[in-house]
């Protein structure tokens, strides 16, 4: 059975994840091709030695099985693409670097992108299309929703609940919660670069600073 894998997005995020995807197929001894999908493509070209094509061309490619990793930082766009893939019967692909650390009972839904030096510890549940960039970690007893993004170096400590579409900026640190009272990052919230989050963050707001505070609209 022929397989075809794709990284959806040929910009920086996708180009960074392509070597991770190649490592994974080598680890699995899978000789299948990986291509880029980029909706700006009008013809099949080459990006970093991989074929790049638009979505219609990808659909037309002959393969018995197709799987796609969505390498789009914008979580709303990621969800739209995931829904389109599902409607077309194409599986979400999870990609994990060789040196990612996974401990006990880490449940990660399809479509995850785990970059080099990421650690996912024990008793964790993560929703679909999770992005964890370089040197991020998730400590014990965390629950993470769908389409959540960690920029590089995020420190997510134990007993934290992060709801769908939250974005955690580079180097941010989230204080540990407790089993009785997890610290919650609300749906669609944005935690700014380098922020130190010491208490729960409401849905849809942006917090910055140390300690992190809500950015007031002007």
TrEMBL record:
Where exactly is the site Increases basicity of active site His? 141
Q: Which UniProt keywords apply?
A: Acyltransferase, Transferase
Question: Where in the numbering of this chain does the PglD N-terminal domain appear?
Answer: 6-85
Single GO term (MF): acyltransferase activity
Superkingdom of the source? Bacteria
State the family it belongs to: Belongs to the transferase hexapeptide repeat family.
Q: Protein name, please?
A: Sugar O-acyltransferase, sialic acid O-acetyltransferase NeuD family
* Upper lineage: Bacteria, Pseudomonadati, Pseudomonadota, Gammaproteobacteria, Moraxellales
